[in-house]
Each structure stands twice: as C-alpha cells, then as structure tokens.
Amino acid sequence: MRRLLFAATLALALVLPVSAQEPKGVSVTPEEFEAKLGYQTGTVTIGGGIATIAVPPSFRYIGPEGSRRLLTQAWGNPPESADGVLGMLIPAEASPLSKQGWGIAITYDEDGYVDDSDAASINYTKLLKQMQDATVEANAERTKRGFPAVTVVGWAEPPTYDRASHKMYWARDLMFGSNGEHTLNYSIRILGRRGVLVLNAIASMPQLPSVRSETENVLAAVNFSEGHRYTDYLPGKDKAATYGIAGLVIGATAVKAGFFKAIWIAVLAFKKVIVAGVIALVGALRALFAKKTSDTPEQAQGS
Questions:
Q1: How do 182-191 and 167-176 pair as beta strands?
Q2: How far apart (Å, rounded) are the C-alpha atoms in residues 258 and 107?
Q3: What SS3 state is found at 31?
Q4: Where are the beta strands (DSSP E) in 138-271?
Q5: In a designed cystine with 252, which of 94, 103, 231, 247 is the match (CB 3.0 to 4.6 A)?
C-alpha cells in the first residue's frame, strides 16, 4: 500500500511539458525520415504473439523501433518515453510529422486479470470529482518542485465499458499550467488473461472528433490471441490484479511493483503533452485500495 501511494505521488510530481521537435539526423528530410518508420498494413502480431491488430484501412502500423524513432527523434520525447511501446497506429490521412498528425501508442501492463464486476456500479461523476480534488491537493507539491499545476477539467468522453468484449474507453480534458490550452487524454483498454493492453491517443483537444470517430474501428481491430484472452483466465492459477475497472480509470495500471513508469508523449506541433497511461491520483488510489491492503493478488476473484 505504501509503495502504491509513493508511486502515485511520484507520478503527480513528474508532469513536464515536452516540445515537439524536428526529426534529428544527418541530412534527412521529413519524407526520408517518415519513409524509414516501417509502415505496415494488414494483420500484425504484437507483444511476441499475445495480441493481433487487423489494421483498419484508415490507419498504418509502425513497430517498436519505428515508434521509438517517431516518439523520440520526431516528437522530442526522452528515450525512456518509448520503453515498452509495442507499436503505434498512425492515421493514414496525415503525416505524423504534420500539424494534423496524431497517433495511438500501444503498451501492455501485465498486472494480472482485472475483475470487471464493478463496471456497472461505478459512479463516474463521483469518480471524476475524486480525481479533480486529489489533483488539486497534489498541485501544491507539484508547483513547489517547479512543475506546472494540472487541472482535470472534466470528461471529454465519459467511460464506456463493453462487458461482452471486455474493452473500455474514456477521455479526459486536461490543462497543464495556466496558459488555458487544453490537452486530450484519450484512453482505450483491452482486458486479457494476464493483463491489459493500453492504447493511448497522442492528440490535442481539437482532434477529439477525429479520435472519437476512429474509436470503434480501433476497438474492433485489436484483440488478444487465443490463450491470452480474458475468457482464458484460470481462477486460482493465474495472477489477478489488485484493482478493478475503477482502478483502470484512476490509474492503477500506471503503478507497478513499487515504481511508476511515466511516459510523457509530446503532441506534435502543439507543444503539449499527455500521459501515455493515466494520471495516478493519491487520494483516489487511497480510497480504492484502502480495503485491499491485506489481500494478495491471487485472492482477487474473477467475474
């Protein structure tokens, strides 16, 4: 419990805007840089076979190496920001090096099977208020450390969970500092036998309509492979996560084994950042995990 709260505190202290940059290289044009990203179409396998993506016609896929180059060399993020990225989906209609470009970064959190029995009973309005209050409380420490305050403005897209497919999405409207510009934090989660596929849109608030219009296509395209699916879970044998659906939204998947894996991804040409993952909030996590401090992951039950 203490380790979880420490990690959540660290998460709130590490928000740092990163400006988008031009691709770095020796005499490399944007066209040459993009040509080397390794675009793929059709059906691709990710994570060593744990899942597949039937790439929608409106997207192109780039693998781990191309994703690292795009995130770090073109979008100006630190090298650690690309750690664990399995690949990215890039809209085909715009270059990722243009102002209109955006993408979806894909990672995997192997925290165990997430019990979805709380999905129908969650009050997301109340959950949003918890996150807003906890963020305000944490901002004093954040500004003390020289980082901009974070404001959770509200839901840009309220959480929606499909219990039949075990897939979920939501979006938050965030502000960093006091410049008044809004940042889109759009999240998709796909539950599996041993963990969760984490998809985060790297985009700005004006691009919300574009991201929203593609959500159903992305949800249908990404699936766990046989043996790794949610329905393949073996109670008593497989590891179970220490949180449920509410934990996904609050940010439990960003808190792992006593450390916080923070990935700050720049929004190309907007000089803004979003969390690839989610903002872990101390107050909300405290409430969520207070009754589970004596439990082990194996004690959590599936639905």
A1: antiparallel
A2: 19
A3: helix
A4: 150-162, 167-176, 182-191, 196-202, 222-224, 240-244, 255-256, 259-260, 264-267
A5: 247
Q: What is the pLDDT of residues 156-166, one digit of tens each?
A: 999 999 999 99
Q: State pTM to two decimals.
A: 0.77
Map residue 96 onto helix, strand or coil. Answer: coil
The residue with tokens 């980082």 is 147
Report the first-to-last Cα separation within the chain, whole angstroms: 24
3-state helix, strand, coil in the chain (%, to 5): 35, 30, 35
- As a residue count, the chain comes to 303
Q: Are 233 and 289 in contact (CB under 8 A)?
A: no
Are 88 and 107 spatial neighbours (Cβ–Cβ below 8 Å)?
A: no
CA 24, 278, 108: angle at the middle one, nearest 5? 75
Buried b / exposed e over 132-158, threshold 16 CB at 10 Å, is bebbeebbeebeeeebbbbbbeeebbe
How confident is the model over 88-135, as pLDDT tens digits?
999 999 999 998 899 999 999 999 999 999 999 999 999 999 888 888
From CA 169, how far away is CA 162, in angstroms rounded? 9
User: What residue ranges do the domains of the chain occupy?
Assistant: 2-295
Query: 290 Cβ partners below 8 Å, 6+ apart?
Result: none
| Cα separation, 148 vs 155, whole angstroms | 21
DSSP state of 22: P
Dihedral sign from CA coordinates of 157, 183, 130, 293: positive
- Residue 181 in 3-state DSSP? coil
* C-alpha span between 303 and 288 (Å, rounded): 18
d(CA 255, CA 24): 32
